[in-house]
Write a structure and sequence with these properties.
The chain has about 190 residues and is mainly α. The protein has a domain of about 130 residues: Hypothetical protein af1432. The protein is about 70% helix and about 0% strand. The protein is built from ten helices and no strands. Helix 2 runs antiparallel to helix 3, helix 2 packs across helix 7 and helix 6 crosses helix 7. The longest helix is centred in the N-terminal third of the chain and has 21 residues.
Amino acid sequence: MDYTIDYIKNWLNANLNEERYEHSLGTAECAEQMAVKFGADKEKAYLAGLIHDCAKCLPKNETNEILKIINLEDGELENPKTHHAPVGAYLAKKEFNVTDSEILSSIRWHTIGKSDMTNFEKIIFIADKIESRTRPDEYANPIREALNNNGLDNALFVCYKNTIKSLAERELTICTSTIDLYNELLHKIQR
């Protein structure tokens, strides 16, 4: 690996706003703890959590230029709030020389998810939602409770249920892969 954690933290601190930088640190810490609990590589989880939002504060024109050269799922372009995930995976590879496919995939899918997510991808997805530095307890506690009582799939299901409800209430487009994953998780936890 060609990058160092100090280099990445300095880059993030310079390229993210203060709250997003704190969120990135919190996600890294949470992902590391979850990795230990669920048998994943804790160093990789820390790194993925740290850089998952590296593209969040990019100027819109830079984000749009990168979006033109990467593959997106149907409906992804319709919600600009999720663009930072595929752009972040691209940036992680280009800026930090990350070549680990598990890390890149977890960054790529941390907003909308995908069918058949690995436990590592689920860890990063959930850590993003429940880290304690910036996520309010009233939002994160139901997910934390599902995680502690019933594991990754149940916590992921709570995330998707809340996300779909919120998007529907705000009359925003819901990416088809988000709906597919919700249905997949519903069937899995009902078994």
